[in-house]
Specification:
The chain is an alpha+beta fold. The protein contains 5 helices and 17 strands. Among the domains are: 52 residues, no CATH class; 125 residues, 3-layer Sandwich (Rieske Iron-sulfur Protein), CATH 2.102.10. It is elongated and about 170 Å long. The N and C termini lie far apart (162 Å). It is found in: Membrane. Belongs to the Rieske iron-sulfur protein family.
């Protein structure tokens, strides 16, 4: 016999519903089978009744006696500790069922399980300094008399200034002394010649700045020959009076103006000097007259010291 599952409370909705749990389907029978127990059983037959569902005004189906407001099992809302923001969630360390799986791969048992690390609840609070900033007290290091401090400061500054000035003076003096001429150069800068030791008509050779200097004490014949020359015919025109400050004394550098050889005195075609290197001839005034020499013999700076009877060259 089929087992009666439930009887619809509203008779106008249709016949009772019978359920065969063994076969897994539902079927209905005529209500008369329940009331006429004494009468002979009629032959079973199939009937089609109106549906057991109703329709709402918006068109959605409505099942009588069936509730769809089912709720899944869940933790209580208070378990999450929403009221305490520093407390961890109650389900923070739980692992859901779907996070674990078991399967056989290639004949081997493979098990996967997810693990959630624990939530850190550690808190660190940096200490704050609420005391106001304070300036150290230096009153113990200060002198009671400010005038004494000023005097000492002025004395120290003045002393250091004097020492610095002395050092700077010595440094500048040494630097300027190094730029000046040395003692041997100064000694050769000027040369004194005693004119009393040079007789008339003779020559004297003096070394000055590494070069020979000819000093000739001329006689009247030498002076007349030098003045009788027509300077317009000279390659380097120059009067005898322009070359000799005093007619009787002729001072010249003993270096040939051609290539720097030293001429020989009282020689040559003009009674003056002759260069043996390339044959240049000079007259009694030291002017170039013949040969490759282009210029006259050079006349250096000189002066006379009449009190001592000396010639100062340089």
């Amino acid at each position: 016999m089929p087992i009666l599952k439930e009887l619809n409370a509203e008779a106008h909705m249709g016949p009772p519903v019978w359920t065969d749990r063994a076969k897994g389907y539902d079927y209905v029978e005529d209500i008369a089978l329940l009331t006429a127990s004494s009468s002979p059983s009629p032959a079973p037959h199939s009937l089609t009744h109106s549906p057991t569902t109703a329709t709402r005004f918006n068109g959605t189906p409505l099942a009588r006696g069936v509730t769809l407001a089912a709720r899944a099992p869940h933790d209580a809302h208070g378990a999450h500790a929403h009221n305490d923001p520093l407390a961890p969630r109650a389900d923070a360390t739980g692992v859901p069922k779907w996070a674990s799986s078991t399967s056989i791969v290639g004949g081997n048992l493979l098990s996967r399980t997810g693990i959630n690390g624990g939530t850190s609840t550690r808190q660190e609070v940096a200490p704050t300094n609420t005391s106001p900033s304070q300036v150290p007290d230096f009153s113990g290091y200060r002198s009671g008399d400010s005038d004494t401090n000023k005097t000492m400061s002025y004395f120290i500054v003045g002393s250091m200034g004097l020492i610095t000035a002395a050092g700077a003076k010595a440094t500048v003096s040494d630097f300027l002394a190094s730029m000046s001429a040395s003692a041997d150069v100064l000694a050769l800068a000027k040369v004194e010649v005693d004119l009393n030791n040079i007789p008339e008509g003779k020559n004297a050779i003096i070394k000055w700045r590494g070069k020979p200097v000819f000093v000739r004490h001329r006689n009247q014949q030498d002076i007349d020959d030098a003045n009788a020359v027509d300077i317009s015919k000279l390659r380097d025109p120059q009067k005898d009076s322009d070359r000799a400050k005093r007619p009787e004394w002729l001072v010249m550098l003993g270096v040939c103006t051609h290539l720097g050889c030293v001429p020989i005195g009282e020689a040559g075609d003009y009674g003056g000097w002759y260069c043996p290197c390339h044959g240049s001839h000079y007259d009694s005034s030291g002017r170039a007259r013949k040969g490759p020499a282009p210029l006259n013999l050079e006349v250096p700076e000189y002066s006379f010291n009449d009190e001592e009877g000396k010639l100062i060259i340089g």
